[in-house]
Amino acid sequence: MEFSIIREIRDEVLGKLDLGTAVPDHVLYERIEEAVLSHPSHGEFTASAKQQLVRRIFHSFRGLDILQPLIEDPAITEIMVNNHEEIFYERGGEMYLYDSRFESKEKLEDIIQTIVGRVNRVVNEASPIVDARLEDGSRVNVVLPPVALQGPTMTIRKFPETPLTMNDLVAGGMLTAEAAEMLRKLVIAKYNIFIGGGTGSGKTTFLNALAEWIPRNERIITIEDSAELQIRTLPNLVRMETRNANTEGKGEISMRDLIRTSLRMRPDRIIVGEVRGAEAFDMLAAMNTGHAGSLSTGHANSSKDMLIRLETMVLSGANLPLEVIRKQICSAIDILVHLSKVRDRSRKVLEICELAGMNNGDYVLNPLFLFEEEDRSPDGKVTGKLKATGNRLLRREKWNMAGLHTEGSGDVC
Question: Rounded to two decimals, what is the model's pTM?
């Protein structure tokens, strides 16, 4: 569709609007319809094309322009804007090239500024990288020139409108009902659980699902770089989000600041959306100072790698001997869950391990569940099952204090 026609109609509608008053959506939609039907070229379009044109112009006023249909499609999980002319999206684990493009680089920049402005973030040439979110909680990452060489770049990670429950994840094959039941008991017993995995492996979704098992009489504080968690089952919930520095380099509120202040807010548990740096030290300290049952996530390739990454993150914020850091990690974290997006693009829980302690200065991992792949299916789909190893939980103090020792079920605990 000709960009010149879209601009002409949009300019005509804009010229007739009273910018001093709020215009309801239905009124704006009617004005656009009238302008489309009165345009000299309207006879060249089919009824379907006219309707598409009306929606396109409406979205340029009130939505995210050409991205709005992708945002509204629940089957699409990721939107990748490489520049104003090249857009990809992910549906069902497969990547597709979008058949629409922005009319100009400036229009894409306008959309980016609208998104980051809604969450009080700033992105410009001086500060060309920012994380933000949409109103529905979708995660947004923006990179501008001169860092992005092809023009403004934006990646949107969508989350389902209704958060997935653990039952949904079990039904989708991410883990087994047996493993989910064990995790439910571990959450109730206030074991500190750390979820690791690569990009797009489902860490935030899994954290959301775990949080549904937290008792409703507890006070929870969530801390995130960009608010993404959709915890809807807890009445006593406080959500906090970091803030970037302003154009003068002042006013930054970091994850470390939020974790420290959360300790004065009488939390029963603290949920840290994702640790990436020095805030790992403060998170571990919180887990070690009476906030049992806390949850967090991080990027890693395995449970063992996650522990090594945590060491590196702590070292970036505290000049401590490695032995002290390892003891801190062992004392703070009880359970490690590792997720992965496997080769058929499905998401699986590959490991559930207990951090059982130290031996000769190294971590002792007690695997409780491990994913075992079975024969490859002809269509390339990964088939397998998260199976109990037969090992039993070794650190049983919290388990027994929660009264779960009375549940004689012959399970791994």
Answer: 0.82
